[in-house]
Design brief:
- The chain is of the alpha/beta class.
- It folds into two domains: 2-192, NAD(P)-binding Rossmann-like Domain (Rossmann fold), CATH 3.40.50.720; 200-352, N-(1-d-carboxylethyl)-l-norvaline Dehydrogenase, domain 2.
- The chain has helices at 11-24, 49-56, 78-82, 97-104, 131-139, 152-156, 171-181, 194-216, 221-242, 254-266, 268-278, 285-293, 300-314, 321-330, 349-352, and strands spanning 2-7, 30-37, 72-75, 87-90, 113-116, 121-124, 127-130, 143-147, 161-166, 186-191.
- The structure holds nicotinamide-adenine-dinucleotide and SN-glycerol-3-phosphate.
- The active site is at 204 (proton acceptor).
- It holds the Pfam family NAD_Gly3P_dh_N.
Length: 360
Amino acid sequence: MYKVTVIGSGNWGSVAAKLIACNTITLHSFHDEVRMWVFEETLPSGEKLTDVINKTNENVKYLPGIKLGKNVVADPDLENAVKDANMLVFVTPHQFVEGICKRLAGKIRADAEGISLIKGMEVKKEGPSMISNLVTKQLGINCSVLMGANIANEIAMEKFSEATVGYNQNKSAADRWVQLFCTPYFDVTAVQDVEGVELCGTLKNVVAIAAGFVDGLEMGNNTKAAIMRIGLKEMMAFSKMCFPSVKDSTFMESCGVADLITTCMGGRNRKVADAYARNGGKRSFDELEAEMLQGQKLQGVLTAKEVHEVLSNRGWLHIFPLFSAVHLISIGRLPPSAIVKISEEKPRYSIYLSGSDISC
Ligand SMILES: NC(=O)c1ccc[n+]([C@@H]2O[C@H](COP(=O)([O-])OP(=O)(O)OC[C@H]3O[C@@H](n4cnc5c(N)ncnc54)[C@H](O)[C@@H]3O)[C@@H](O)[C@H]2O)c1
Ligand SMILES: O=P(O)(O)OC[C@H](O)CO
């Protein structure tokens, strides 16, 4: 029997728990109960968030108005939440994962499998390190990923979406994750390319910030489409230059072009970047995030910084004008209008990608 714990309870974490809980109750190979670890906080009412979730079956802060399923149990104790589970779903903002894994080392079941729904990466001395790799290294477990065009609030309302599971070796684990997440309104496909799937989910957040700048500057649809096209090229080039095994076909899955489109149209990164540009860069991302997202976290600004660090370390800044500009704009070193300058430049990824079909 498989027992699932969701590590994280934000907007997407709560929807993931809902999707999983509706399946564990009907599939015989899974325990009904789904534990959801909550980073505890006190609500304005004075009550603990965990207590309110367990009383109302709703995450009133991060997913109000949606019932999670009676078999979802919120738990503020991380060790207790994972101790019986052999399927661990990681879904916190990426900046918190390393600390969480440190706390979990040696505390999980030997037969546990992981999956990361987290869109982000870490930068180590040797280069970019994906979150699935961090989980594997720190906890010694196999870790797949699930990414896609998945604005959580829409899936919470059971509107049709697709998603992509990325795996490397363990196809039977990937199939089990597909079974756990699939519903009539959430269609999941597995591809053998963990890094490719994860890089798509991670890098599209940087392009979404650029798209938000274009919206805030009211530059129109053609400019936004140009930014998305250039962004997709940079996503592909960066992914393949850092991880040569990444497959071109992955970018045509839900995790690739579809996620790029939905995030640039309706995501939180786009929304806050729009406000940043409308304010002429005078109010910081941190300030706007706190005011506009009420505790939810952006991933794009931090990812742009991390990508910039990789580009700088490797001498690649000049061949990734969009990624570079997003970081420099978001820290106030360039004005938001600088985002359109990149379309006048001619990046030459193909020089670095012999044998690839990427060219400009
Ligand atoms: N929301 C979406 O539509 C969506 C869709 C797909 C993927 N994702 C990805 O899922 C991941 C999680 O995002 P989310 O939307 O579930 O979260 P969120 O942004 O809605 O909420 C932030 C979460 O971080 C928690 N938190 C705050 N400080 C913390 C700390 N110090 N340690 C641990 N946790 C802390 C909060 O309690 C909250 O649960 C991100 O990588 C995001 O890119 C989000
Ligand atoms: O709201 P965003 O910008 O964090 O994007 C949400 C999801 O990643 C879209 O798939």
